[in-house]
Amino acid sequence: MSSPRPILNARLVPLLLALGSAMSTHGQSLVDLYAAARGYDASYQSSKLQFDASLAKADQAQALLMPTVGLTASASQITQDTLSPAVAAKSYTYNSQSATLAVTQPLYRPSNSASYEQGKLLADLAQAQLLAAEQDLVVRVSQAYFDVLASTDSLAFVSSQKTAVAEQLASAKRNFEVGTSTITDSREAQARFDLVVAQELAAENDLRVKSIALNQLVGKQDARPNPLLAPVVLAALQPALVDTWVQQSEASHPGIRQLEIALNVAKLETQKAQAGHKPTLDLTGSFTAVNFADGTSTAANVDSRANQASIGLSFTLPLFAGYAIQNRVKETLALEDKARADLEATKRSVAQGTRTAFFGVQSGQAQVKALEAAEVSSQSALDANKLGYQVGVRINIDVLNSQSQLFDTKAKLAKARYDVLVGGLKLRQAAGTLKADDLQPINSQLAK
Question: Who contacts 291 (Cβ-Cβ below 8 Å, separation ≥6)?
Fold first, then answer.
């Protein structure tokens, strides 16, 4: 059995290498370029840094349940004048230094407890957001990767068509010179050749643009995807039932997970608002040291020190706040209902998106099979028209049309295969199950 060979026509490689920027000797696999994008893509890096910030913010909520400790110190100079009819006037000037260490431990603060629970949910929310960013990066890299391959194939097919039309043009001119065909054949072939030249220029520019987009995404100047190996075998959808995919999306989609967390956060916000009616209880303790030192004085020296320690409970009961608490509760209840409605809307949207992606992949696979059959038929039609042209039962335009149909079918077939591969990844993204490991089966179908 012969070894697999790339779909890309080998004789077109020098032409493709001459386009635009310099290209490396060896191409890169899909996994390689995804790894490069993880370390370079600004959008993903932003999501990752936001994840780190969200984790730090979540940890801040724990401080609401921890004791607070504060140290205050002061220093002052005191001047005291004593005036009394019975004794002579006296003046005292002395220094005073004090330091207080105060500790407060919340014992019962319902609002703080709800905030702490919200903080823990923030960590889960950050995880879901990062997962969505990772899935988005997988799809963006894969789409850009196969966009370049599709443009490369289109240019290869147009260039092959140009060669075939040039040969047909030369044949028409020879036949006209010997009188076996009319000038119409030559002019038709010339018109088709000019059209293919224009198509080739457009294909070159499209490849250049798609290559720039891929380079910018992965942070390379010469990213060149490896082509698919032939024969291309597209794996069947597993599982094969759309309802199974929809059920997976309801359980795994990061967008749904984010809205579920948002609903729980909204419920805790309502609890915080309702806690405005509830009392709070704190354990407090303090230690104060005060020192009086002699300064300039007309009286006896003043030197003394006093220490004071205290421990107790601080109880606060809200009585009336101008209906602010009641209205705040109404607000949070409305926001809670909104979060619930948003969650339901997202579930419906995700389910619809999953079904659309599933049937898109199914349709794509059917199109690939149809185009494979059309490719065989188009090749047979071209061969028959060439033979008919040689024996005089077909005219030049018949051959040219058959050539155009064949190369157009080849380009559509290659694009359809890439669309199915990317569509499978988008289906997993829609279901919320997409992982970087899902690139490995596709990567194994690429040339080394």
Answer: 96, 97, 98, 304, 305
**Closest by alpha carbon to 138, among 447, 429, 444?**
429
pLDDT tens for each residue of 81-131: 777 666 566 777 778 889 999 999 999 999 999 999 999 999 899 999 999
β-pairing, 87-108 vs 280-294, is antiparallel
> Per the domain annotation, does 370 fall within a domain?
yes
For 232, the 3-state DSSP assignment is coil
pLDDT of residue 13: 38
Q: Which of 294, 311, 295, 312 lies closest to 303, judged by CA?
A: 294
Q: Is residue 375 part of a domain?
A: yes
Q: Residue 384's domain is classified under what CATH number?
A: 1.20.1600.10
Assess whether pLDDT exceeds 50 at residue 3: no
Question: Which residue type occupies 412?
Answer: K
Contacts of 85 (CB under 8 A, 6+ apart): none
Q: For the chain, how many structural domains are there in total?
A: 1
pLDDT digits (tens, 9 = 90+) for 229-251: 988 889 888 999 999 999 999 99
Domain range holding 42? 5-67+109-277+323-443
- Quick count: other Cβ atoms within 10 Å of Cβ 232? 17
153 token code pair: 């194939």
As a whole number of angstroms, the distance between CA 441 and CA 29 comes to 12
At 291-300, the pLDDT tens digits run 877 655 544 4
d(CA 336, CA 342): 10
72 within some domain: no
pTM to 2 decimals?
A: 0.82
State how far the Cα of 281 lies from the Cα of 283, in Å rounded to an integer. 7
User: In Å, how far are 67, 194, 269, 285, 444 from 316, measured between CA atoms?
Assistant: 18, 89, 21, 17, 68
Residue 16: HSE in the Cβ half-sphere, 13 Å Cα cutoff: 31
| CA dist., res. 39 & res. 17, Å (int) | 27
Instruction: Provide the pairing of β-strand 5-6 with 87-108.
Output: unpaired
Strand partners, 68: 104
Rounded CA gap, 66 and 105, in Å? 7
What is the DSSP secondary structure assignment for residue 296, as one 8-state letter? S
Question: Where do we find the tokens 């795994």?
Answer: 252
Residue pointed to by tokens 């290209």:
23
Query: Phi-psi bin for 420: left (phi > 0), alpha (psi -120 to 50), beta?
Result: alpha
Tell me whether residue 63 is in a domain: yes
Closest CA to 399 of 90, 164, 181: 164
